[in-house]
Each structure stands twice: as structure tokens, then as C-alpha cells.
Amino acid sequence: MAEIQLKALAHSYSDTPTGPDDYAIRQLDHVWHKGGAYALLGPSGCGKSTMLNIISGLIQPSEGEVLFDGKRVNELSPRDRNIAQVFQFPVIYDSMTVYENLAFPLKNNKVPASRIKVRVQEIAEVLEIEDKLHKKARNLTADEKQKVSMGRGLVREDVSAILFDEPLTVIDPQLKWKLRRKLKQIHEQFDITMVYVTHDQLEASTFADRIAVMYDGQVVQFGTPTELFEAPNHTFVGYFIGSPGMNIVEVERCSDGVCFGSTVLPLESWQVDILKRMTSGNLKIGIRPEFIEISPIASDDTYEANVQDIEDLGTYKIVTVQLGEQELKVRQNEEFEASIDSPVHLSFPKQWLMLYVDEFLVQEQQ
Amino acid sequence: MDKIPDNRAWWLVLPVFLLVAFSALIPLMTVVNYSVQDIFGPGQAYYVGAEWFKEVLADERLQDSLIRQFVFSGFVLLIQIPLGIGVALMMPKSGIKGSLCLILIAIPLLIPWNVVGTIWQIFARGDIGLFGWGINQLGIDYNYTGDTLDAWLTVLLMDVWHWTPLVALLCYSGLRAIPEAFYQAAEIDRASKWAVFRYIQLPRLKSVLIIAVLLRFMDSFMIYIEPFVLTGGGPGSSTTFLSQTLTTMAIGQFDLGRAAAFSLIYFLIVLLISWLFFTAITHADKEK
Amino acid sequence: MRQTRSKNVGITLFILLLLTPVYWLLNMSFKTNQEILGGLTLWPQTFTFDNYAVIFTDPSWYNGYLNSMLYVSINVVITLSVALPAAYAFSRYKFLGDKHLFFWLLSNRMAPPAVFLLPFFQLYSSIGLFDTHIAVALAHCLFNVPLAVWILEGFMKGVPREYDEMAYIDGYSFPRFFIKVFLPMIRSGIGVTAFFAFMFSWVELLLARTLTSVDAQPIGAIMTRTIGASGIDWGVLAAAGVLTIVPGLLVIWFVRNHVAKGFALGRV
Questions:
Q1: Which residues of A touch B (CB under 8 A)?
Q2: Same domain, A102 and A51
């Protein structure tokens, strides 16, 4: 097990990158601590698989360093880094049985036969494939194959880390949930560093203690699921995490706050202070649909808006309202009733109003 | 894929059927016809039943060339299949270097068979051929026209030169069809080079190897022109293979009945062995 | 890294060994007969094009090449035009006797040409086709058509039937669908099949020689004429040999991209 550190990492698939657009990963610094369960979350093409392959050594980064426990490993091949990786689509040795498949990495590591037996049995039980151990791997179903693939990653005890590259893509939704729990259990049981790549926020938050959100070749935020939800560090995180995502509104500077159209939003004084010192005109306000309050009666700090649409999602409702020119989503519980086109009164609790300058969150200085 | 039952598909196969029937069935009937008759001249033929077959089977000359044939085909497979796999593994995976290798390696396959014989006839000569001269320079007495073993080795070497490229190219395209993820997984699993070959490459080469073994068996079993040009079947009859014996019998000696009976036996042997190969391989596959 | 290098060394060595006999032929084709027989020289001391001049100026020589190319081309055209619909039928439909027919076809690929020499001679003589290009082309169909059907069927199986159905829904007639939609999808397969048909027809001599005498005689048979009263004319023989390799090289150059993918006959 090891602490994995990425220092000033950048990677381009082109031999002669000409601009930032040629880079799959741009200038990235990051640390995965020993024994953590991490998720790497981001949309397709954001560079998360590239990053994983750089950690495992399948790809040599074009710039920067990969450090395992402080030691540079850029030049080491995956076999020397002693890392396990599970791929998106099942890769199995189809001429072998399930048992032989699981034992294969151990045999290659010269683990004694008696230990192999115990270990394979243990992992097979965890993955619930112990009854298939003596079947030819090629006769398995797609999700059994993927379990075997995962098993080959989990079976090794001495690895620096286990990397998962969207391992549940081919698995049925029901089984997905089960396997995710399994992985979590395995993590608690064996205390291995695990990095789990996914584009599914639910998958990320059920598996990981901390999530790194990647966007456009950079890690834009690294935090617990709660942190990502409550204080997205970047407008992308706000938009990507949550369902629906954060309301993000382009605004301009006004006295004591910001405004859009005829709506003026007062901000906390420290936000106003910082705003004064910044010169950028790229200002945005973000607020989660969960934190906007709706009331039927107007008061001093409410804004009148128009109900556009109500979506009933069973246990809650998503209300679309129009405030001036701006559409906002508001999450309400299932009792909420209002007719379309009727006026409602919104209020925005100050502590949930996030100010973004150049897409990044403005935070209070301690 | 599930196929749709539809007998109208026969219309699509009809041209092939007629063409192959014309160029295979009619001649084959002629052969069968000859094999059971003794022909003295136009209109003078007697039915002799299985007489020719008995004679042919008892003919020592034929038995000898049959044994020679089996030994030859055996060596051909033993050398060419592993060598072809080895070459395919060494070929660059892609790019201009890959294409160039492919074309250069294919060259021997594109040379007419009599020219292959001619090339080696010259190349292996002790006086004007680089190969023969080189071997002699090493102090080894080598003369493929006089020495039986030398003649054999030369014919075998020629065949290896001529046909290993086919095996190599078949395997090469088989290897290229293996997804990169398999190699990555093996690298992660710390598999040795040998394990990668044994558990990833070899299993996925199986279907092309079946083709390679079958083609090489059939064609080596029918070999005629190349050794005929190179050694003329000699010294003595040491490199006279089945096809040559048959051709001499049919055209040289005009011994039609015997040649026909022999032809049928020959054809049956090729069919039988090919079938055995095929079922053995597919059967072994099912058992696992 | 070290491993790639040793691989490169290995493959370079193999190709060098493979090309040495060909080089020797090329080397000899530029030599005079005196030099060839005078002793071993690694490259021509007196470089000459005379041997090639003989071939290009003597119609009985260059006609041999034209004859060979003509019957090979006819054979490739016949092979592809009958094998394509048949392979389609085998890949898409179940019909009476399909499996037996398929195996019977393949068994013809296993027939030793020597077996058919005499019957072929008689057959083509009796229908007046002896010594014509079409006779050789037809005879070569014996082994090329089964192989072509086999290869093409493998490629066609790889094309999902949904394409066929979609084309019918879009109102394509069968011939139009087959030519406009289906054939382009198996381009590689057709390239490889044409390559194999060319190759096996071009290199075959036994049948070609037996079925011709003057008008359609293949180059391979003409080469035996270099053995004259004064012994073998080695230089011309070598030059003729070199020239037989050229058409093959041209063909493989054109299909090189398909060959890499499709050499496995669509069966990987």
C-alpha cells in the first residue's frame, strides 16, 4: 500500500502538443492518501481514464511526476509498480477456469500454493462466484466475467493500490448496487487504497470517502460528498453534482451585492469585500435547488417569480420558476401545490449563495 | 446469427454449383470410370472391378512415395507452424514498418512454383549458388543433386522458405485482432512473456492456426512442381512425392487404370486426414 | 525497449534470409552467362540488361506473361462473380443440403491437381477449349472458387443482418442492395479474396501447362525453353523469373491495407 502523489502532471496524446486543447490532462497536482477509498468523477473525455492509466503505468505522462510514497515511479512499468487495475470491459483469460483466472496474478507473484487456495476461495466468496470456480471462464455471462476481472484485482494482498476504471458499466443495475457495497466492504476489510473512476455521482458517493471531480483535464475539487454538494468549488461541480444541478446565474456587480436583470441579490459583507478587490467580469451566482425557499406570501427579502412547470418525481417535486429573465429550479417536497403561471415568492438564504469568479468559488478567508 | 430457412437461396449458389460440378464432378467421374476398366484403345475397354486398386495398394513404388509424403508433410508442419507464429510475434504491430514487413514477407508466396524451384535450383548449387557455395565454404560437403539427405534438406528448406510466410501472415492478422486491453491486463497481473503467449495470444490464434495447419497440410501433400524443378525427384527417387509419381504414371507411362485408382486413393487420403485434423481440433475444443 | 529491439533484429534477420534467394535471382538476371558460369560474384561485375531485352523483344517470351495475366484475370473475375452470391446465400440462409454442399465445395480445394490432369485434358479437348485462356481460368476455379466462398462467407457472417433488413425497408431491390450497400461493407474481404485467387492462379503451373500448347501457354511453361542445345541460358531464365514476381508485388501493394486486416479470412 502506498500514498500516490501526482506532481505537475500533464499528458498529451499528441507528440507535438501546440495548445492546451491538445492536452488530456493539464497541470495537475494531487495526492491519494494511503488506505483511502476514492472516486474520480467526471464526464466522458475529461481525462479520468488517462489519469488512471498514468497511475498504473500503462501510459507514460508527457510532463510531471508520479510518486509512490515519495519515490518517483515514472519509469517503472505496471508490473514493477505492483498495482492492480480493473478495466471497463471484462478482460478474462478465456482458456482458463475461473479459479485459474483468480489464481493467475498470485501465481505470477510466486505466492505459495496453499495461500493461493485460501485467498481465491475468500475472494470468490465475497464476489459470490464460489460455485463457478471450476467453470471455463469463457462460458460465463458478461457480469460474471466482470466479477472475475474484479476478482483478479482484489485477490492480491500486497498491491500499492487497486484502480477501477468504470468497472460496473456492463453490469445490471440491481447487481451494480450490490457490487458497489461489496467493494466498500472489501475496502473496510482489507484497508487498501482504492481509486474508482466513474461518471456516475451516485456510484462515486456510495463507494468513496472522498471524491475528486475532474473537468477538462484538471481536478476541480477534491472533497467529501457533502462538501461537493454544499460548497462546489467550481461551477462545473455545481452543475455536475446534484440532480438537478445547481442553478447558476450570470450576474453583474451592484451596490452591496450582485444583480441580474432587475433582480438585486445582497451578499455577505466578506463576499462584497472580495468582489471589490477582483477585476474579472466573469461573475456567477450559484444556489442549489434544495436551498431556495418558496412561500406563498411576499415579504421584505423575497422575490416574486412565476411557476413554469412542476415535475413530480414521486418523493419530491422539481418546480421550474421564472425570475425576471432567468429560469430557476427549486426542489420542494411532494406536498407542494401550485398552478402553472401562478406567482410565488422566493428567498435565497445568504449562506447558500455561492459566488463564482472566473468559474471558481469565492471562499471566506479565515 | 440465426439463418433464415429459404430454399430459394439455391439460385444464389447455383452458378458455383454448376461451375464446380463442371470442373470437378465430370473429371472425377472420368477418373472413377478409368479406375475400374482396362483400356487398350478407343472403344476397347474391359471392366476389371477393383483390380487396379489392389495392384496400386500393393505397389511398392507407391507405398514408398506415400511414406515419403507423410514424412515430408510432417516436417513441414512441425517447422512452419512454430516458425510462422514466431515471425508473426516479431512483426511490428502497425504503421509503415508493419505494411513493409507484410509485403516483403509475402514475396515468396507470389512467385510461380516453377520459379521457386528454379530459384533454389540455382541458389543451392555449389558452384554458382550463394547457398550451396556458402555451405561448401564452411567445409561441409553439400551436393543436393547427388546426396539423398542434402536433397531432402534442400527440398524442405525450400518449402519452409516458400510457405512459412503464409503461416506468419495468417498469425499476424490473428494477433492484430487481440484488443490492447488484454495486454494491459496481463501487464497489471504481472504475467510473464510466456504466460502472455500461452494464455492470451495462443488461445486467440486458434482459429487462424486451424486454417494454417489445414492449408499447409493439403498443399504440402500435393506438392509437385517445386521439387520436380529442383531435384527432378532424385537422386534416385528419394524426393519423388505422390503427385509426381502419379503424373509420371498417368502421362509418362499412360497407365490410365492404375493412375486413376491411385488418384482416388490419393484424394481420399487428403480428405480423410483433413477431416481428422478438423474434427480433432474442434472436438478438443468442445471437451474443455 | 530492449525487447522491441531484439524483436526488430529478429524480424530484420528473417526478412533478409527470406530475400536472399530472391536477391540471388535478381543478381543473376543482370549478369552475362559467362559471368554466371565463370564463378561466384556477389553483384554483377559487368552489369547488363541484355537478358531483359531478350524477353521484351521476343513475342514468344512476352506473350507468355500476357497469357498468364489474361487467364489469371479471367479466373479472378469468374471466381468473384460466382462466389459472392453463393457466399451470401451460405452466410444468410438455411437451405436444402447447404452443409453438404459447403463441405463438398471445400473438399475440392483438397483435390490434388495431379489427379485431374488427364480428365481435364480430355474434357477441354473434347469441347474444343484446349489451349485457350478460358480453359485454364475454368480449371483454376476448381480450387479458387471453394476457397473464395469460404473466405467471403467468413466476412459476410460478420455483417449483422439488420443491414439487409434496413435496406429492404428503405426500398432497395436485392441486386441494388447487394452492390450498393453490402459489397462496400466487405471491401476487405473482397480484396483478400481477390488476392488469394490471383495468387493461387498465378503460381499454379501443373494444370496451366497441361491445358495449353502454344496460344495460351503460361510464362512458366515457356521458361523451360531456356534449356537449349547449348545448355541452359541462365541469365534469361533469371530475368524471366524476376519478371514473374512483379505482378504479384503490384497486386499486394494495392491490397496491402486490406490484407493486414483480412488475412485471417474473417475468422478471427
A1: 56, 58, 77-79, 82-85, 87, 89, 91, 93-96, 104-105, 108-109, 136, 149, 152-153
A2: no
Distance CA B134, CA B120 (A): 14
Span B121-137, average pLDDT: 86
Class in CATH terms, C61-262: mainly alpha
**B205: nearest CA in chain C?**
C268
> Rounded to a whole number, what is the distance in Å from the CA of C125 to chain B's nearest CA?
12
Q: Which residue in B84, B82, B75, B73 sits closest to B273, CA to CA?
A: B73
Task: Indicate if the pLDDT at residue C8 is higher than 70.
Answer: yes
pLDDT tens-digit series, residues A17-49: 887 778 888 888 888 988 889 999 988 888 888
Q: C touches which chains (3+ CB pairs under 8 A)? A: B
Identify whether the C-beta of residue A354 lies closer than 8 Å to the C-beta of residue A288.
Answer: no
- Across A158-172, A208-222, B129-143, B260-274, which has the greatest mean pLDDT? A208-222
Q: What is the spatial distance between Cα C47 and Cα C169, in angstroms, rounded to a whole number?
A: 67
Within-domain flag for A242 = no
Residue ranges per structural domain of chain C: 1-48, 61-262
- Cβ atoms A210, A223 nearer than 8 A: yes
Question: Which grid coordinates are listed for C143?
Answer: 480450387
Same domain? For A65 and A104 the reply is no
C-alpha C142/C-alpha C206 separation (Å) is 13
**Are A268 and A311 found together in one domain?**
yes
Number of domains into which chain A is organized: 3
How distant is the Cα of A85 from the closest Cα of chain B, in angstroms? 7
**What is the average per-residue pLDDT within C167-189?**
85
**Residue pLDDT, tens place only, B159-209:** 999 999 999 988 888 888 888 889 989 988 888 889 999 999 998 888 888
Which chain C residues contact residue B27 at CB under 8 A?
A: 116, 119-120, 123
The domain limits of chain B are 49-287
Q: Minimal CA–CA distance to A215: which of A47, A13, A51? A: A47
Residue C23 to residue B123: CA distance in whole angstroms = 10
Q: For A269-336, where are the alpha helices, taking DSSP H only?
A: 269-277
Is A82:A161 a contact under the CB 8 Å cutoff? no
| Whether A347 and A271 share a structural domain | yes
CB pairs under 8 A between A and B: 52
Q: What does the alpha-carbon distance between residue C154 and residue C150 come to, in Å, rounded to a whole number? A: 6
The model carries a pTM of 0.82
Q: How confident is the model at residue C268 (pLDDT cuts 50, 70, 90)?
A: very low
Q: What pLDDT is recorded for position B2? A: 67
Same domain, A327 and A305: yes
Please report, rounded to a whole number, the percentage of residues in chain B having pLDDT higher than 70: 94
The residue among A150, A145, A146, A123 whose CA lies nearest residue A135 is: A145
Superfamily of domain B49-287: MetI-like (1.10.3720.10)
CA dist., res. A289 & res. A331, Å (int): 5
Q: Is residue A340 part of a domain?
A: yes
**Do A255 and A136 fall within a single domain?**
no
pLDDT tens for each residue of C27-43: 888 988 888 777 777 88
Residues A130 and A207 in one domain: no
Alpha-carbon gap: B69 to the closest alpha carbon of chain C (Å): 13
| B19·C145 Cβ contact <8 A | yes
DSSP β-ladder status, A303-312 and A316-323: antiparallel
Residue A137 CA from chain centroid, whole number: 32
ipTM: 0.85
Which amino acid would we find at residue C104? Answer: W
Q: Specify whether A66 is located in the same domain as A203.
A: yes
Identify the domain containing residue A36 by its residue range: 4-83+159-236
Which sign, positive or negative, has the C-alpha torsion B268, B273, B278, B284? positive
- Pair B91, B172: CB distance under 8 Å: yes
Cell for B52? 487396379
Indicate whether A102 pLDDT > 70.
Answer: yes
